[in-house]
Each structure stands twice: as structure tokens, then as C-alpha cells.
Design goal:
The complex is a heterodimer. Helices cover 0% and strands 54% of the residues of chain A. In chain A, the strands form 2 sheets. In chain A, strands 2, 4, 5, 9, 10 and 11 form a 6-stranded mixed sheet that branches. A 5-stranded antiparallel sheet of chain A has the order 1-3-8-7-6, with no helix packed on it. In chain A, a hairpin with a 6-residue loop joins strand 4 and strand 5. Chain A starts with a strand and ends with a strand. Chain B is mostly beta strands. In chain B, strand 4 and strand 5 form a beta hairpin. Chain B is globular, with a radius of gyration of 13 Å. The chains are: A mainly beta, B mainly beta. Chains A and B meet through loops of A and strand 5 and strand 9 of B.
Chain lengths: 114, 116
């Protein structure tokens, strides 16, 4: 089955800096890669996703890149703000399977200091 | 819409006690699921349901039961609580179980359970 590894486990940056979180996956057939943000005391929330037919996707200050050959994908946050502080999870699955096959990474705690 | 609601927010049990974690959604979603979140282990699927009357096991189902008598509700039952079940539990729902444009999972705020 799929296995997703996520690094780093914690990341501290200064406000305005960029932050990068990396994930690797094991199942070469996986083709859907969402990212979730979990704020303190809340459930995870989908912030961006990418499918394997594209190499990069952007949404304002957030971007995700995918390298299918190396089987890794990354979340990039530019111009970080204190409200970006949260735990971020990556995940992977095959698009022709359901959410029950979604495998999550172990999470990255991002701290943005003013 | 209230979205996905979970009760209680916090619970402390003694080993061997039973309890039910409640989950409800008001979005008429077919698919509902339960996850547990443990430090350093991400989210792991316990049970899921693709519609009223239909449930199935996820990755870590042992010690938990579920039922889905209505579209809105998906309770999780701990039959005989064990310290290993100390965790944060999240309920999630989506329009259908298949991902795709416009179909995402919405998570509830979680229940923090401690078993002594």
C-alpha cells in the first residue's frame, strides 16, 4: 500500500520568509496529492491539491510542486505571516479510489514568528 | 450550515468504560469517516460509510464500532476503552467518496479522548 513520508516535523521561520515542506510517496500509481492545514483546536482543512498531470499549482502565496519521477511533492508558502502558523499535512492516493484510500503524512508544525 | 459537528470536545474515561463519540453533518453528504490522530502518526482511518446503512473498516478498526442509520449522523462507539485509544478523533464528510473537482472532505473540530 501507499506510504507517505513528510519532512520536516517542525519548521520555524521569521515573518516574510518562505517555508517549504516536502513529502515523498511510495505508490507510483498515486496521482492525487492534497495538502491540509490544521489550526490549533480545529480539524484539518484542504488548502490546495495537485494532480499528476501537472507539475505545479499556485494559489496566491501557496504553491505545490510535484516530481513524479522522484515521487515527491512539496508545499511552498511565500511571504509567511503569523496566521500561517499551523500543522500541515500532505496526503496521497489514486484518483480512481475513494477517500478511504487517502494516506496522510505525519504532519509539519510551522511556526511563523513576527 | 453548521458543517461537521462533533461532541463532546473532551472526554476522560477509565479503562473498560464504553462511550459514543457523536458526529453530525448538515450538508447532505453521502460519505462520512472517522480518523484518529496520534503524535507523529498523522491521521489514520478507523471506519467509513458511503451512505445510510453502509459502513466499512479502515486501517485501524479494532475496538471501535460504527453505524449509519441516517445520512446526517455517524457515531463512533468505543466498546471497552483502553489506554491505547487515547487520541484525538476527527469525523469527516464529503459529497461522495471519490475525490475530484469540488468534492473535498470537511473535518469536524475533533474530540480529545483520554483513557486512564
Amino acid at each position: 500500500g501507499e506510504n507517505v513520508e513528510q519532512h520536516p516535523s517542525t519548521l520555524s521561520v521569521q515573518e516574510g520568509d518562505s517555508a517549504v515542506i516536502k513529502c515523498t510517496y511510495s505508490d507510483s500509481a498515486s496521482n492525487y496529492f492534497p495538502w491540509y492545514k490544521q489550526e490549533l483546536g480545529k480539524g484539518p482543512q484542504l488548502i490546495i491539491d495537485i494532480r499528476s498531470n501537472v507539475g505545479e499549482k499556485k494559489d496566491q502565496r501557496i504553491a505545490v510542486t510535484l516530481n513524479k519521477t522522484a515521487k515527491h511533492f512539496s508545499l511552498h508558502i511565500t511571504e509567511t505571516q503569523p496566521e500561517d502558523s499551523a500543522v500541515y499535512f500532505c496526503a496521497a492516493r489514486r484518483m480512481n479510489t475513494g477517500f478511504q484510500k487517502l494516506v496522510f503524512g505525519t504532519g509539519t508544525r510551522l511556526l511563523v514568528s513576527p | 450550515n453548521a458543517g461537521v459537528t462533533q461532541t463532546p470536545k473532551f472526554q476522560v474515561l477509565k479503562t473498560g468504560q464504553s462511550m459514543t463519540l457523536q458526529c453530525a453533518q448538515d450538508m447532505n453528504h453521502e460519505y462520512m469517516s472517522w480518523y484518529r490522530q496520534d503524535p507523529g502518526m498523522g491521521l489514520r482511518l478507523i471506519h467509513y460509510s458511503v451512505g445510510a446503512g453502509i459502513t466499512d473498516q479502515g486501517e485501524v478498526p479494532n475496538g471501535y464500532n460504527v453505524s449509519r442509520s441516517t445520512t446526517e449522523d455517524f457515531p463512533l462507539r468505543l466498546l471497552s476503552a483502553a489506554p491505547s485509544q487515547t487520541s484525538v478523533y476527527f469525523c469527516a464528510s464529503s459529497y461522495s467518496r471519490s475525490g475530484g473537482a469540488g468534492n473535498e472532505q470537511f473535518f469536524g473540530p475533533g474530540t480529545r479522548l483520554t483513557v486512564l
